[in-house]
């Protein structure tokens, strides 16, 4: 993979970590930043001063022009917040070659259509066979330090999945491949909602038992949705499912779990919290489209419904706990 050129679309924490990892592996990296001053600073200092400043980006070329980043690239990795994915893909159309593989790292659903970003990319760029998605228990803060981690990259075309597998894998980051982009996408979006619920429980001091209960029953909700939409149970039980759910619900790096704690303790709204932390609470934006998708498939998602009601002010915490704990008693796995 050395001497290949890969465009990394996004200069956030995950984009910075991925750009560093690729460059360390000898890959030529073009990094797209939303603001011109961000790109200029990276080129001048070889660091992202705002996010993960410890990453040495020497050799990474940063630009705020989409065409400059993707034209002639051997592969493109999109790692923007969910609300920015559609816009970046639209700017890429006409600039990126028809056969260039594209990997999506953004976790969520398209706010406009409620679709997975794989579907959105297919509609905008064409070529389902070249669109891949990556997910797993991967906090950028740890990746940037070379801590051991793993993930799964999924694509209908296994050759595209293998391209990114070999491009990104290194001595501390192990990638597996899958042919289930739908399952990987939905797991990546859903686990953030469950993490908010776990954060709320933790912020209320409900204890480890309550967090484990929410994680386990939350996984059941994820499994129901994924399999109804054509994904597989293997994906739910793999790195994109159980793996990512575990780290997102339990890690101190998790912005979704941390928001849940802050909500429980302060009653803070999503927008105010995002402004404070300069990070996006993806689960808060994904919960609406996920519940709409679940309704289309006649699937119950009580934990995700509870999260939506809480963060939008539709219910208070005490009412929500009573509702969840007094639901009809059923067989596990029903």
Separation of the first and last Cα atoms:
47 Å
Rg estimate, integer Å: 19 Å
Q: Determine the strand fraction and express it as a percent band.
A: 5-15%
Helix content: 40-55%
Uncertain segments are none
What coarse outline follows from CA principal-axis ratios?
globular
Task: Summarize the structure in short.
This protein is an alpha/beta fold and 334 residues long. It contains 16 helices and 8 strands. Helix 8 (181-203) packs across helix 15 (302-311) and helix 9 packs antiparallel against helix 11 (239-250).
What does this structure look like?
- The model has no long low-confidence stretch (mean pLDDT 95).
- The radius of gyration is 19 Å and the shape is globular.
- The longest helix is centred in the middle third of the chain and has 23 residues.
- The chain contains 16 helices and eight strands.
- Helix 8 crosses helix 15.
- With 334 residues, the protein is an alpha/beta fold.
Task: Give the helix/strand layout.
Blueprint: E1 5-9, H1 13-24, E2 28-32, H2 36-45, E3 61-63, H3 66-70, E4 75-78, H4 82-92, E5 102-104, H5 117-125, E6 131-135, H6 140-143, E7 149-154, H7 158-168, E8 173-178, H8 181-203, H9 208-228, H10 233-236, H11 239-250, H12 255-266, H13 270-277, H14 282-296, H15 302-311, H16 317-325
Parallel strand pairs: 1-2, 1-4, 2-3, 4-5, 5-6, 7-8
Antiparallel strand pairs: 6-7
